[in-house]
Specification:
globular; alpha+beta; D-amino Acid Aminotransferase, Chain A, domain 2; 30% helix; 2 domains; 9-stranded mixed sheet; 15 strands; D-amino Acid Aminotransferase, Chain A, domain 1; 6-stranded antiparallel sheet; binds N-(5'-phosphopyridoxyl)-D-alanine
């Protein structure tokens, strides 16, 4: 059975979903997106993802065509039309189709596209042993808080990790940790979680928020601030977080071990708290 996607008011097989070449998403990368994990057919933290979409659209001065309730219904309808129990739902809004001109076109309806694929989370081996990462200078723009579809710097930075046989690229702007090419980054120092603040230099991750909520609820101390490269390299633990990676330990950075090169005790705690939360909140609703 063909994969069903959503495009501008219609559910249709992916082979039949076309966007004109003058779509501003294609021409300029002019749009915003979300990636929402779906567990047992329940969209995880859907409200939070839709609120971040709204913030991104406002940041891009792009009209949000749908109300929260309309988005929720569309997302749930797409989940139903796809086979997998656990899915990775992608949605994007672009400024629509117009003759090529940098300035905003007038009277153009945004393009809305959604698709859902089976969710692929890190392997058991990666969760147990951690992964390697490389580092790079954060070459992105100054509005990394907007989840824009224009991802060329992220694409180039992520490829550096792939070329090195690693999973992620950890970014430093002016020597300060920001985030990963496609994830947020946390460190641990003497039992305290170090996290960069949600400013314009990082995406306010939904997983980031959840991890900090879980840490607080379980009395694990957190220090939110600006951390320089030397401090991050000397940290006891380093983690990646995202909707698809969940929480994953980085055990080596640029070929050098982080801590004792094994996922650390705070990671193990957080990993368990995250999985327990997921199972409790999502899976129980199916009973
Ligand atoms: N990316 N920072 C960046 C630059 C990201 O691209 C992502 C997620 C995150 C984590 O955000 P969240 O926890 O809300 O997934 C942080 C998604 C998964 C992607 O682009 O595929």
């Amino acid at each position: 059975m063909s994969q069903i996607v959503y495009l501008n008011g219609q559910f249709l097989p992916i082979e039949q979903a076309y966007v004109p070449v003058l779509d501003r998403g294609f021409m300029f990368g002019d749009g915003a997106y979300e990636v929402i994990p779906v567990y047992s057919r329940h969209a995880f933290r859907l409200r939070e993802h839709l609120q971040r979409l709204e913030n991104s659209l406002q940041g891009l001065r792009l009209t949000n065509l749908y109300s929260l309730a309309e988005w929720e219904n569309l997302v749930l309808a797409l989940i139903k039309r796809n086979q997998a129990e656990d899915q990775s739902l992608y949605l994007q809004v672009t400024r629509g189709v117009a003759p090529r001109n940098h300035a905003f076109p007038k009277g153009v309806t945004p393009t809305v596209f959604m698709m859902s694929n089976p969710l692929i989370t890190p392997s058991k081996e990666q969760c147990e042993n951690g992964v390697s990462a490389v580092s790079a200078v954060d070459i992105r723009w100054d509005r990394c808080d907007i989840k824009a579809i224009a991802l060329l710097p992220n694409v180039l930075l992520q490829q550096m990790a792939v070329d090195a046989g690693s999973v992620e690229t950890v970014l430093f702007r002016d020597g300060i940790l920001t985030e990963g090419a496609a994830s947020n980054i946390f460190a641990v120092e003497k039992g305290v979680i170090l996290a960069p603040p949600k400013d314009h230099h990082m995406l306010p991750g939904i997983t980031y928020d959840l991890l900090l909520e879980l840490a607080e609820a379980n009395d694990i101390p957190v220090n939110i601030g600006y951390f320089d490269e030397a401090r991050i390299r000397a940290a006891d633990e380093l983690w990646i977080s995202s909707s698809t990676k969940e929480v994953l330990a980085i055990t080596s950075l640029d070929g050098k071990p982080i801590g004792n090169a094994k996922p650390g005790p705070i990671f193990h705690k957080m990993y368990k708290l995250y999985q327990d939360y997921k199972n409790r909140v999502m899976r129980q609703e199916n009973d």
